[in-house]
Amino acid sequence: MRVLAAMSGGVDSAVAAARAVDAGHDVTGVHLALSAAPATLRHGARGCCTVEDAHDARRAADVLGIPFYVWDLAERFRADVIDDFVDEYAAGRTPNPCLRCNEKIKFSAVLDRALALGFDAIVTGHHARLHDGRLRRSVDAGKDQSYVLAVCSRDQLAHALFPLGDTTKAQVRSEAATRGLAVADKPDSHDICFIADGDTRGFLARRLGATDGPIVDAETGVELGRHAGSFGYTVGQRRGLDIAQPAPGGEPRYVLSIRPADNTVVVGPRTMLAAARIDAERAVWTRGRAPGDAFECTVQLRAHGMTSPATVHVEDATVTATLHEPQVGVASGQALVMYDGDEVLGSATIAAVHAPVPA
């Protein structure tokens, strides 16, 4: 096959491209330029998509002996990932920009262009497996990225290759060293690539304006403190609330909800964070359709952990998941990903969270 290898400049994408070459594919490497001002992106290992990453990707392509190009997707990235990130926080939700990047950039913009140019598939360094067109968890549970790939449709997965799903991260690094790839010991990327200083609250304040508002107790309605913008908080947050008045029993308070309409942050005890039923919208099914109008599965509610057996009901593009084990700190805007064992069934965006019904 003629395949396009998305090369981020990290060790995973480099080894994935190398394995595609070994498999006999006609491989071309591409690095995505995602900022109109690359110098504003992170340097070093704290993020991805940096200037150094572009150089590392080119050097890896040279070692592999494959053609290499840089595609400028800065405007698309700004509109579909950065602006979406800001809009979601402004609406009181907690987005996952890496998931949105997979949905809108890597498996939409990049894949569409690749197919238009005559490529058969794209290959990435994601830690996930594809068996007979079905998306499954990686064998390395600690690096599994099936959650952030669950936004991919069946047609998109039909044109994707994930060569690393059967390999642990330690094995990937060892293989990179054996192949003479300079990125073998490069640290993994972390945080949000388009926030250069790592200050998410400051980034949002510059975009949305810092407007102070009340921090209110959910049980009494009493104002406990002030904040400089409700966008700076997320459901389940405990630290950084700046509340001088302790709870009557001395227990810590957590963010229970954000009300952007009146710029209010609502806090309360951990027990009030429990979620038993979740409504989610914009469902995507990796098999092309839902397993049924109602089915049993395991749902994952954050990129790392927060799983529960659940009963899911489907109506058009919305799902309602009744959790068998209530979870704490579920945030709207995150993805609800449904699994049958290690297979991804589909995903939907969390829209509303409901507490357990009192006995």
Overview of the molecule:
The structure is a single chain. With 359 residues, this protein is an alpha/beta fold. The chain has 3 domains: 2-185, HUPs (Rossmann fold, 3-Layer(aba) Sandwich), CATH 3.40.50.620; 210-268, SH3 type barrels, CATH 2.30.30.280; 273-354, Translation factors (Elongation Factor Tu (Ef-tu), domain 3). Helix content is 25%, strand content 30%. The chain is built from 8 helices and 17 strands. A 6-stranded antiparallel beta barrel has the order 12-15-14-13-16-17. Helix 1 links the parallel strand 1 and strand 2. Helix 1 packs parallel to helix 2 (51-64), helix 1 packs across helix 7 and helix 3 runs antiparallel to helix 4. The model is unreliable at 42-47 (pLDDT under 50).
Concise summary:
The protein has helices at 11-22, 51-64, 74-90, 97-116, 146-149, 154-157, 169-178, 200-208, and strands at residues 2-6, 26-33, 68-72, 121-123, 128-131, 134-137, 160-161, 213-217, 223-227, 254-259, 264-268, 274-285, 294-300, 307-315, 318-328, 335-340, 343-354.
